[in-house]
Amino acid sequence: MNELVHIQIVGAPVACAEGVKETWRDLGTYMAGRLQERYGPSIKVTYHDLFDPTCPPLPADAQLPLVLVDGDVLTSGGKLSMPAIRRHLETLGVEAVTFGTGGPRGPEPGHPPDVRDVDCGVGDATRDSRQRGGGGS
Q1: H-helix segments, the chain
Q2: Residues paired with 67 in a beta bridge
Q3: pLDDT tens track for 69-126
Q4: DSSP letter string over 61-93?
Q5: pTM for this structure?
Q6: CB 38: neighbour CB atoms within 10 A?
Q7: Facing residues of 76 across strands?
Q8: Residue 4 DSSP SS3
Q9: Angle at CA 48, nearest 5°, toward 83 and 89?
Q10: Are 96 and 43 in contact (CB under 8 A)?
């Protein structure tokens, strides 16, 4: 999958006794961060407040929160669902970026190595101490 997939989350402030809460914005921002970590440059996630001038046009029967993927409604109303978004991205062929490998493209400059590739020396130290007669059982 080479095309950028655009995920738009539309919500609104919630009025309550304590004042106005930005629950959907906060959750949308959190989800955007997690999705961006997982899928990297393959996706773009944008949160829109219902009253923002940049808010995309809503379908007539839309309920908040609304999740659009490339302009198509994924979910309307209910809860924001990370698993639903991830499943949909998988059906579109969007691949997760594997930490330290850069995903299907291989390692990317500036990324730390995959922790499985780092030799911490713990196994060697234990083996060495047993060979010297210390530690172990």
Answers
A1: 23-39, 82-91, 122-131
A2: 9, 75
A3: 999 999 999 999 999 999 999 999 999 987 654 444 444 444 444 433 333 333 333 3
A4: T--SSEEEETTEEEEESS---HHHHHHHHHHTT
A5: 0.70
A6: 19
A7: 66
A8: coil
A9: 30
A10: no
Q: Which residue has the tokens 């530690």?
A: 135
Higher pLDDT, 113 or 40: 40
Q: How far apart are CA 72 and CA 77, in angstroms?
A: 14
Among 23, 20, 24, residue whose Cα is nearest residue 8: 24
Is there a contact between 100 and 112 (Cβ–Cβ < 8 Å)? yes
How far, in Å, CA of 33 to CA of 95, rounded? 16
Joined tokens for residue 102: 């850069």
Burial 76-91 (b: 16+ CB within 10 A, else e): beeebeeeebbebbee
**Contact between residue 49 and residue 13 where contact means Cβ atoms under 8 Å apart:** yes
